Amino acid sequence: MKYFILIVIVFVSLIVLSIKVSLGEDEHGYEHDRYTLFEKQPGVAPVKNHLYEQECSSCHFAYPPGLLPAQSWQAIMTGLGDHFGENAELAEPDRSAIQTYLLANSADTSELRRSRKIMRSVSASAVPLRITELRYFKHEHDEIPARLVTGNPDVGSFSQCDRCHQDAKYGFFSENKITIPGYGRWDD
């Protein structure tokens, strides 16, 4: 009987340990091991293209492609000469490769929950160029006072997703994991 109880305890312990999905530590030593089977998929697919990440994150957060529909990425990539007031032109092979990646992984090609919600908030004829223009985005951020974001020198803009969503680069934008710099944990 003692051995049976011991075997059951070991078995249950192994199951509990196997439920956790370890994502390792990021460059800040932040442990990413709290995702269980119940929250195993990110809301959008994380960026998995080195060229895109390298080129775009040199100026801003490399937004996961699942945050915008393909027509938006197409418009952004064909307008890099005036990219929100900046010249972000790329050599043609790089521009083409990044555009191909973005279109293939856009919100309208994704089955992940946040990308699907984004697509439901965009009319078929709309071509939003900013994630912050999305009806879904506005709805999700409507309770956050602007002073905590645009009036906050450590954030600056609602377009700086990774400033408050620490797991943004992994595709997780959970309301349960928001920390606003200079303010603390956001709990609505």
Task: Summarize the entry for a quick read.
The protein has 188 residues and is mostly helical.
Question: Could you explain how this protein is built, in words?
Answer:
It is a single chain. This protein is mainly α and about 190 residues long. The chain has one domain. About 35% of the residues lie in helices and about 0% in strands. It has seven helices and two strands, in the order αααααααββ. It has helices spanning about 1-20, 50-55, 70-80, 90-105, 115-120, 135-140, 160-165, and strands spanning about 180, 185. The protein has a two-stranded antiparallel sheet. A hairpin with a 3-residue loop joins strand 1 (about 180) and strand 2. Helix 3 (about 70-80) runs antiparallel to helix 4. The model is unreliable at about 20-40 (pLDDT under 50).
Notable features of this structure?
globular; mainly alpha
Largest sheet: 2 strands, antiparallel
Strand sequence of the main sheet, in spatial order? 1-2
Q: Multimeric state of these chains? A: single chain
Structural class: mainly alpha
The average pLDDT score comes to: 85
Q: Which stretches are low in confidence, meaning pLDDT under 50 for 5 or more residues running?
A: 19-38
How many DSSP H or I helices?
A: 7
User: Strand share of the residues?
Assistant: under 5%
- Tell me the radius of gyration: 20 Å
Give helix and strand order, one letter per element, not per position: HHHHHHHEE
Distance between the termini: 50 Å
**DSSP helix fraction:** 25-40%
Describe how the helices and strands are arranged:
Layout: H1 2-19, H2 50-56, H3 70-78, H4 92-104, H5 113-120, H6 135-141, H7 161-164, E1 179-180, E2 184-185
Antiparallel strand pairs: 1-2
